[in-house]
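fyi for ur records
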Amino acid sequence: MSQARFQKQQREKARRERAAAKWAKKAERANAEAPEPTEPARAQDEVLAELAALHARFDAGDVEFEEFEERKQRLTEQLDVR
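which gave:
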């Protein structure tokens, strides 16, 4: 076997090994468990009801815009969107 052919085979073998390692790492990440939520899960109906009440208070003028946006952001983060 010529040296050039041997070197080419070695490069191709290394390339296949790198591709296999990359695929295994990707599969491992896909199968990894989701991190535990930092806050306990709340019922979606409860979050939506609180969001509706917040909108009603904002429409009535009881809540300032900045406070409304901050609370709305916190509540929408708690929604389970899939």
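Residues 41 and 78 are 8 Å apart (CA to CA). thats all i got for now
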